[in-house]
Amino acid sequence: MDVVVSLLDGILVALEPINLGLAVVGVVVGLFVGAMPGLGSVNGVAILLPFTFVIQDFTGTATSPMIFLAAIYYGAMYGGAISSITLGIPGASTAVATTFDGRPMALAGGADRALVTAALASFVGGTVSNLLFTGFAPPLASVALNFGDPEIFALMLLAFATFVGLGGDDIPKTIFSICFGLVLATVGFDVISGEPRLIFFDMTGFTHGIRFLVLAIGVYGIGEMIWTINSSRYKDTMTEVNITVERIFKAIRGFGEAWKGTAIGSALGFFVGILPAAGATPGSLMSYGVAKMTSKDPSQFGKGAIDGIAAPEAANNSASTGAMLPMMTLGIPGSPTTAVLLAGMVIWGLQPGPLLFTDQPDFVWPLIGSFYISNVIAVLVNIAFIPVFLWMLRMPFTILAPLIFVLSLVGTFAAYQNMFDVWLMVIFGGGAFFLRVLDYPVAPAVLAIVLGPIAEPKLRQSLLLSDGDFSVFFTRPISGPITVIAIILILLPLLKLIRDRIRSMKGTPA
Q1: Which of 237-251, 288-302, 455-469, 477-491 has the lowest mean pLDDT?
Q2: Backbone dihedral region of 279: left (phi > 0), alpha (psi from -120 to 50 degrees) or beta?
Q3: 188-189/196-197 β-pairing
Q4: Distance from the Cα of residue 117 to its chain's centroid
Q5: Within 10 A of 245 (CB to CB), how many other CB atoms are there?
Q6: CA atoms of 471 and 15, how far apart (whole Å)
Q7: Spatial distance between the Cα atoms of 506 and 190, rounded to a whole number of angstroms
Q8: How far is CA 18 from its chain centroid?
Q9: Angle at the Cα of 272 from the Cα atoms of 382 and 477, rounded to 5 degrees
Q10: 442-498: per-residue pLDDT in tens?
């Protein structure tokens, strides 16, 4: 009961005119920051962090600037889906999985439905995670602390297992794609030994590794643009987009069809979000894989499946709130963006950790209350701006293609201020096109380059901890069941492949 009273008091503070105004501005700014390739929540929060000192001087409290930054974070989680659906370019790494089905649905004339589904799924995911955050913050934080290196590696293995079937029935090509992504993930300096690895042609640009955003923009920006031009689809797509209030309400009424993907993303996203070093990107990718694996018709995924949009969008919003939990209760940031928020809290004289809820309730509960307020503002603003977003799809592809190309170049350069990464992005775009021509799935490689830098050090540190004994992944109470489930999920499609091959050799129908 005390929690409910504290939350209501916090919401009332968050609804004060100055705080409400900051939340609205923060959400709108975050929405467009998230939609711009190369920016995303990390850059948006970091760029605007100095501005919060002006807010603090004006309001005399650390609550208002934190509400502003948290609203930017929320808005950016919503905004990442906009360019993923309308242009096929992920606004941030958290929205990559949305591209898999959001873009095909837009190309089929359902961009309004895709955008509405993304907005509503994000709202549900944010609401569920807010409720979990409010009611179970301390015990959930203690559960996250029990995740050591073996547990996090087992979780990453489970993520790979859910994506073995992502490439369709061609399991060998999917496994090759995952392995190729893992190889790319090892480029740069070894995080444990410090030795350089796979520095191609001794180019110094590879020393920092292959950055994920470079790969994502290249694959889903340049690669998709070339594929569209090559397939001649540009002649009759993305030019006829009719948007009416009736279509918007129809899309809202049809959101119930996405209940399974939304539920999976909301629950799994929050759980992955509270784990240190995980965050919204692995959560959204894992949720997409689980949604496809549990679907009655997995073949529709990649062609515009509504659950393929709802699952990752619910997950990245749920994970964004989940990542705030270890930051506030333990002082451990759960994502790069929360690391910037943590720095802001320290600058403002606050000490994140177990005593924050008891020593600073006047800060904590208004901030939590602002999560609910920002979530409502974000879904309303997102749906209201759908006609603006769809305006991009009304442009002829002869104009849209150069725009995508320029946005890809500018977005990559804005993220890293490095022309080497820009050229690398263009090369990845060409490579993705040729992989699609050869019918190799690209999504598993993207997953591998996201999770590879997390999984590899956790694997090696776990083996160092156990003196090279792999049983550490099976004997621990948390990592054991996760590892077993992951192995089963990997073996099932392989066994099905072997069975089908044996049947075809015998001449019987599969």
Answers
A1: 237-251
A2: left
A3: antiparallel
A4: 16
A5: 8
A6: 53
A7: 48
A8: 31
A9: 160
A10: 777 877 777 788 788 888 888 888 888 888 888 888 888 888 888 887 787 777 777
